[in-house]
Design goal:
The protein is an alpha/beta fold. It has one domain: Aldolase class I (TIM Barrel, Alpha-Beta Barrel). An eight-stranded parallel sheet has the order 3-2-1-8-7-6-5-4. β1, α1 and β2 form a beta-alpha-beta unit. α1 runs parallel beside α2 and α1 runs parallel beside α12. It is globular, with a radius of gyration of 17 Å. It binds phosphoenolpyruvate (PEP). The site of phosphoenolpyruvate (PEP) has 13 residues, from β8.
Length: 266
Amino acid sequence: MRRTIIAGNWKMNCTRADARALVAGVVVAASQRPDVEVLVCPPYTALETATAAAAGTNVGVAAQNLFWKPKGAYTGQISAAMLVDLKISTVLVGHSETRGRFGVPEPDFDEAVLRHFGESDETVNRKVITALAAGIRPIICVGETLAERSAGATDVVVADQVRKALQNIDPAQNEVVFAYEPVWAIGTGEVCAPDEANRVCGVIRQTVAELSTQSAASSLRVQYGGSVKPDNAADLLSRTNIDGALVGGASLNAADFTAIILAAPV
Ligand code: PEP
């Protein structure tokens, strides 16, 4: 039995005061569902505040990214040791907004600038290795763009991202979580149909079985992310291959995030 994992990715939102207030709401929801693993992913600046606000509750705090170098002249980057110092034990890796794969066309200037975050499959793999070596569990985001889906390449793209993210890592020996996040569904309000989301989460599981063992694949947790809202969460979360949700926009509203947590199958 895989424990449902619901994570809220706050992206570049929330001051420390906002974080305190939001965690207070999430704590109430999480206390009603101790069977569900609930995480919030604040920006770096609010990690410590959110951790303090969640202390003694069953809400966990995760970071949104990390860099693979241990220290040095890497302006703006955060190392694994810095996250460990804050007692952070989960990190998102390879979110499409850091891979530079966008669901919504951006105006040219933003597009050009944002693409410089340009995560590749290789940097994702380095970050996964770095996180695990530091005892931090990665939530690895994978997913196809609309063009890739339209070309019928979804399964190939997703399986390839999974294989490359796990290069030199055995998921039988290390806990990793995957989030299937179709790029076209992120922040667009257009959710992937639950049957299809379930099918692609199954592709991720099957790929892990091929790379590792059937037992590692059976215990692997795979979240769905992309416009998860209170009105579609129960349907998605009831599917056999979907073990949770990675929630962006709706996680910034305590009532909406609460409804999503409570929608997890009992
Ligand atoms: C995300 O950013 O991971 C995400 C799924 O966003 P949203 O829920 O807003 O689509």
